[in-house]
Each structure stands twice: as structure tokens, then as C-alpha cells.
Specification:
The strands form six sheets. Strands 18-17-16-15-19-20-21-22 form an eight-stranded mixed sheet, with no helix packed on it. A four-stranded antiparallel sheet has the order 3-2-1-27, with no helix packed on it. The radius of gyration is 19 Å and the shape is globular. The protein contains one helix and 27 strands. A hairpin with a 7-residue loop joins strand 21 and strand 22.
């Protein structure tokens, strides 16, 4: 699918936005909007994308074999080493976290390994409960109604304590954990390398899921229910007044820069400039999954 997803002078970011359109895996240069068909075709619409330092891992929650797309845009090869022995993947720093998860007991203690594109594992960590990406290449454990930083390890004992609640948004500089009880919610921002805590004065939302924090934690995108209807909202962090509300549930939001965010909305790929409050129509249809690889 040649052409551009958005005008060349837009400069939405610096890096590659991978996406699935129909059963094709496409690569979009965020700085020019230029679309390249990688040649890789997915075997099912229930597919996931995990970027690596020199490629893209395409995998299926159903357990179908994964494929590795190398830069140079080949049509995908079976992943080597530790990648081939895993059935669950979480984005990591310069690789992916990979594990063999028992689908009958997904919350048991599982060993996750940080693996590069050559299939070599460099770090191993045991996670009790569900493993969640922290948005910056690290790993969180979600179990027993609480969230704990697993990797990279935190030096201070207090910082290693779990936060009650669930992860509602992640980003390169922090993640949000929110706990709701009796109609009241408390939201904690864990930010920076040390993952310091900051309690927000305004909870993000009682029904928020699948959120994304912008670089610098200034803005947050949230998928939530408003008047029982699914919507996507972009708002300043700590404010309950959205900059813009989009209809639909949204999925897989990625911030291409501090101002540009891309996500899958009701009508397909949405590209939104949160600084100038403008929506740029996409020329791509049938988009279902996104993955961001900064330059």
C-alpha cells in the first residue's frame, strides 16, 4: 500500500509506526507519513505487535507461531532461541519480555526473560501474577489487586512496595495506578527512573482502561465510558476537562511525540495534535493494531 498516511510536512514524530491493516503489516515513517508494505501477512485478526531494536515481532494470543520481521522489510522468519519457546510477549528495552505462560493458569509465578532479536536472553525475572509493560521497557506485576515494579529493580524499599489498584495508563516516563472503591477513586503516578510516587488531585476516571501517557507525563489518553457509551478522551494529566473526546472504544494508543497521539478509533486510525487541537484524517483503512518504534 504505497503513498502516505498523512501529509509529508506534518512531522508527527521521529520513528516508525507499525500497524495492521486488514491482514497486512504496514510501516509508517512518522516524520513523512510515508507508508511501506512490509510484505508480512497476518494469519488472524487477533494479532499483537511488539517492536524490537531491529525489527518487529508479530504474535498471536491464541498460541499460533510468531513471526519476526527484520528491518529491511523481509516477509518474516520464525523467531530464534528464547523467542521461539515463548507464547506471551511484553515490549522491553531493546527487545521483548518473553515467557511461556500456561493459559489455564495465567496468574501463576512465571519466569520472564528479556530477549533480543537474535533470541538471546539477557535478564530473567520471576513474576507472580500478570506481567504488564510499564511503558518504558520495564516490567510490572499485577496480582492480588495491586501493582508492583519488577524490572528494573528499584533501590529504595519504600519504592518497591506495591500500589493498590490497576494500571490504567503507561508511557515512556511513568505509569498510572488507580484504585476505586465506593464510587471514589485514587490515582497514583509513578514517574521517572526512580518511579517516585505522586498522588493526583483528580482521578483519571472510574472506568478508564488502555490509557497512554505522553512523554513528560503532561497529557494522557484514556478509553472509558461516558454516559454508558465508549469514548476516547485526551486531557492534561490531573485535569477532568478533556481537550477532545472521540466516539468509540479506541485501542492501542501510542504517542509519537509530546503532542501527537495515534490510536484506533471507531472509524479507523486517528492522528491527533493535542497542542493545536486538530485531527488529521488518515488515508489508511481497516487498521486494528499499532506499535511504536522511536528512532
Amino acid at each position: 500500500m504505497p503513498g502516505r498516511a498523512w501529509p509529508a510536512d506534518l512531522r508527527a514524530g521521529t520513528g516508525t509506526l507499525y500497524l495492521t491493516s486488514g491482514r497486512s503489516v504496514l510501516a509508517v515513517d512518522a516524520s513523512t507519513g510515508l507508508v511501506t508494505d512490509t510484505g508480512l501477512r497476518t494469519r488472524s485478526y487477533d494479532v499483537r505487535l511488539a517492536p524490537l531494536a531491529d525489527g518487529l515481532l508479530v504474535w498471536y494470543p491464541s498460541g499460533w507461531s510468531s513471526r519476526l520481521l527484520r528491518f529491511g522489510l523481509d516477509t518474516g522468519t520464525p523467531p530464534p532461541g528464547a523467542l521461539a519457546r515463548a507464547n506471551r510477549f511484553v515490549p522491553g528495552a531493546d527487545g521483548v519480555w518473553a515467557a511461556q505462560v500456561d493459559p489455564a493458569r495465567p496468574d501463576r509465578r512465571t519466569v520472564w526473560r528479556l530477549v533480543d532479536a537474535d533470541g538471546t536472553a539477557t535478564t530473567s525475572v520471576a513474576v507472580r501474577g500478570r506481567a504488564v509493560a510499564d511503558g518504558a521497557g520495564g516490567l510490572l506485576a499485577a496480582a492480588g489487586g495491586a501493582v508492583r515494579v519488577v524490572e528494573p529493580p528499584l533501590p529504595d524499599v519504600a519504592d518497591r512496595q506495591a500500589d493498590a489498584g490497576a494500571v490504567v495508563a503507561t508511557g515512556p516516563d511513568g505509569f498510572l495506578v488507580q484504585r476505586c472503591s465506593g464510587g471514589a477513586c485514587t490515582t497514583v503516578l509513578r514517574e521517572g527512573v526512580a518511579r517516585t510516587r505522586r498522588v493526583l488531585d483528580v482521578p483519571v476516571a472510574g472506568s478508564a482502561v488502555d490509557g497512554a501517557l505522553s512523554p513528560g507525563n503532561r497529557l494522557v489518553l484514556l478509553s472509558q465510558l461516558v454516559d454508558d457509551a465508549p469514548v476516547v478522551q485526551v486531557r492534561p494529566l490531573g485535569s477532568d476537562r478533556p481537550l477532545r473526546t472521540f466516539p468509540g472504544a479506541g485501542s492501542g494508543a501510542v504517542w509519537l511525540s509530546e503532542r501527537w497521539v495515534a490510536f484506533v478509533g471507531r472509524d479507523g486510525l486517528v492522528l491527533y495534535d493535542a497542542v493545536d487541537d486538530r485531527v488529521v484524517p488518515s488515508r489508511l483503512s481497516g487498521v486494528t493494531r499499532l506499535a511504536w518504534q522511536p528512532a
